[in-house]
Amino acid sequence: MSGLLAPPGFLWLLRHELRVLWRGSILVRTHRHVLIPVVAVGLVFQAVALLLAWRITRHPLAEAQMLLAANINLIVLGLLMLSRGITAAIDVLYGRGDVDFLLASPLDPGHVLACRMLGIAVSIAAPWLLLMGVLANGLAAFGQVWALAAYPVVLAEGLVVAAASLTLVVGLVGRVGPARARRLGHTLSLFVGLGIFVLGQAPRFVAQAKLAAFWSLLLPARGGGGAGFVFARALVGRGGDLALSLALAALVFGGVWRGLAGPFARGAISAAAYRPPGRPGAQGGRFRRSVFGALLAKDLRQLARYPGMVTQVVYRSLTLVPVLLILTGRFNIADGLVVTVPLLVFLAGQLGLFFISVLRANDLIPDLVASSPVAGAWVRRAELAASAHAALLVLVLPVLGVVARAPDLAGVLALGLAGVLLSNLVLGQRLPMPLPRPGLGKSQSGTVLGLILGVSVSSFWALGVWLLAAPNPLAWLRHGL
Amino acid sequence: MAAEMALTVRGLTKAFGRKAVDGLELEIAPGEFYALLGPNGAGKTTSLRMIAGLMRPDAGEISVFGRDVVRAPLRAKEIMAWIPDEPLLYDRLSPLEYLEFVAGLWRVEPKVARARAEGLLDTLGLWAHRHERCEGFSRGMKQKTVLAGALIHEPRFLLLDEPLTGLDAAASRLVKALLRQQTDRGAAIILTTHILEVAERLATRIGILAGGRLLAEGDLAALRAEAGLEHGSLEDVFLNLTAA
Questions:
Q1: Model pTM?
Q2: What pLDDT was estimated at residue A438?
Q3: Which residues does chain B have within 8 Å of residue A280's beta carbon, measured at their own beta carbons?
Q4: Helix axes A309-316, A150-205, angle to 10 degrees
Q5: Between B170 and A344, whose confidence is greater?
Q6: b vs e for B200-223, b when ≥16 Cβ sit within 10 Å of the residue's Cβ?
Q7: Whether the Cβ atoms of residue B205 and residue B219 lie closer than 8 Å to each other
Q8: Listing from the earlier edge strand, what are the strands of the sheet with B7-16?
Q9: By CB distance 3.0 to 4.6 Å, which of A91, A119, A245, B49 could disulfide with B54?
Q10: Which residue of B has its CA nearest to A379?
Q11: How many CB atoms within 10 Å of residue A270?
């Protein structure tokens, strides 16, 4: 054991990897006082989870329903972990430059790979451990101690998914290259997200009886279902299945590690073994005399080519779904179209903050512009214009739809859009929000403070336009009371 | 009336806790190729960054073809180009898009810029790759793309920080020839390098910097005299002067 802990032992290396992961996390790089709202949000989560746990304990589900819910939960988690695992595996194997450094050292390459795989497993399981953990804690507080099984089960699922991600990535990168493989990861997460959303919206479109019949088809057989429900049974606290799940996870993880360790040691799985061919881009070469035009064109290209841009925009634009439902008459709400105004204004603020943060994070060569005869103000103006342009491009159709249906809302909508964009873009230039994945080899440039302030600003403007647009903005409050 | 100097540096000083550049005095004439040598931490890159207008000096004056870099940096930058030791590019732009961007920054007439871009890409062997994103480029290809960017506005003064790092022999020869063309048309060049052979073969004058101060400057013969050596290579002279 002491040999494993001492350099260059396995645990020593694992400690190093975890330290690098921790120092790279947003929380550590964020100023300490920002941890206060983060901890506060965590406490709120725990309080909500306690309420939820209380409700669950008061309305216990039948075992079959419980197992089905657990299984669906695990499948969705697994797919979300897989999408994140694919991008993490690409970064770890083909992006981080220190693989060559570690392989050139007297470290056992197998240990290096195992550490990397464990790092992926921990990083993809951690968010779900935190989220499911608060509910498990809540249930345990009400005497349902079995719920604490969520911790080892989610970790076991993380191990299986990390192994699957690596296998998939090694196979994919050899065929299509890291960039396309990464895009597949983003696309997968997009579809999973959309799938969850559609599932949530299903009661609006599908008759209750049909839905009930559909779910009953998926219910496990008496006795807890077959092999497909092992992890679900473990999640609801069956001891034997928990042990089996852990053993299965260890077997899959160990098997993949054994299979990949050889090629990894030979350098067949590394950035050096695969050099992506240049990708023909859109025909460039439209030379401009205008400095602003050159800066704007560069910024728009940077935005369009940011990895995962489409996924991120679609995720952030889910706010548009209720807007579209209201516009198409599928969803009726008391104040009608007026509700769409704060929704669009909030989304504009969030998109603007995201786009400006991408540009700030991708400003890889500020020295180039600094060495040119261009004042810094032009750079900032071009960033503002590019971000506003991109945000309005996403919003143009729903905005036109609202204005066409309710021309009297045009003024307040225009005011809200201009105000929220200006506020959040200026804020984002100084305090960009953290991005889902910073550029390779780059540290995260955004801060949680930027994110919190950005959301607050968007909410402030949304509330403002709601108060201006709604004929009786506080009516719902009186009804509620 | 004295001829206008390409670069005049007077009493240039910069400290980061300790003095990185300490009262540097430098003059470079148009068409001159000046190599600034020095051991690690001598203040070469700091000096170049101040001359390029990227860093404000604590004291001293810098003028490039009569344009004051400290007081009117934008005017001075119009005629300068700076190439750092790391070939920093926008990975997701193609070489042609990168040149389009750089030409825009220096307000080069579009027709002229396109013709120059095509010529430079062709000369530097990048024409076949003009529409590929730079993310897949080797270090040498990136370095050549950055050089093309530096030359597209035909600067009168070039600052090159280790420009030949990562280039193969053929590319290195090509770049040297391109740089000579620049001095032939009257541009001045200041470069830092650790490859003494490059300085010996290309530079008309060499300055040796250590501890932020200029120890000696001149051609090889002058440097030998300064070092008290009758014979010997630039390496001997350099080691002799910097060891003192």
A1: 0.67
A2: 42
A3: 131-132
A4: 60
A5: A344
A6: bebbbbbbbbbbbbbbbbeebeeb
A7: yes
A8: B18-28, B7-16, B59-64, B67-68
A9: B49
A10: B105
A11: 15
The 10s digit of each residue's pLDDT in B143-197 is: 899 999 999 999 999 999 887 777 778 888 888 889 999 999 999 999 998 888 8
Q: What's the pLDDT tens digit per position in A212-269? A: 887 777 777 776 677 888 998 999 888 899 999 999 999 999 999 999 888 887 766 7
A97: which residues sit within 8 A by CB, 6+ positions away?
A: A271, A441
Distance CA B163, CA B39 (A): 17
- Interstrand relation of B59-64 and B67-68 (parallel, antiparallel or unpaired): antiparallel
Q: Is B81 on the interface with A (CB under 8 A)?
A: yes
A372/B117 touch (CB, cutoff 8 Å), yes or no? no
> Which residue type is seen at B212?
G
Nearest alpha-carbon partner for A164 in A78, A77, A92: A78
Task: List b or e across A24-50, with b for residues whose CB sees 16 or more CB atoms inside 10 angstroms.
Answer: eebeeebeeebeeeeeeeeeebeeebb
Q: Using the beta-carbon criterion (under 8 Å), do B74 and A375 form an inter-chain contact?
A: yes
> For tokens 């048309």, what's the residue?
B185
Collect all residues with Cβ–Cβ distance below 8 Å to A149 and sequence separation of at least 6.
A136, A234, A235, A236, A237, A242
Residue A481: exposure state from Cβ atoms within 10 A (0-12, 13-18, ≥19): exposed
Written as six digits, the tokens of A1 are 């054991």
Taking an 8 Å cut-off on Cβ atoms, the answer to whether B54 and A370 are in contact is: yes
Which chain B residues are within 8 Å of A306, Cβ to Cβ? 92
Contacts 24+ apart (CB under 8 A), A364-368: A364/A439, A364/A442, A364/B88, A364/B90, A364/B91, A365/B88, A365/B89, A365/B90, A367/B54, A367/B82, A367/B84, A367/B88, A368/B88, A368/B102, A368/B105, A368/B149
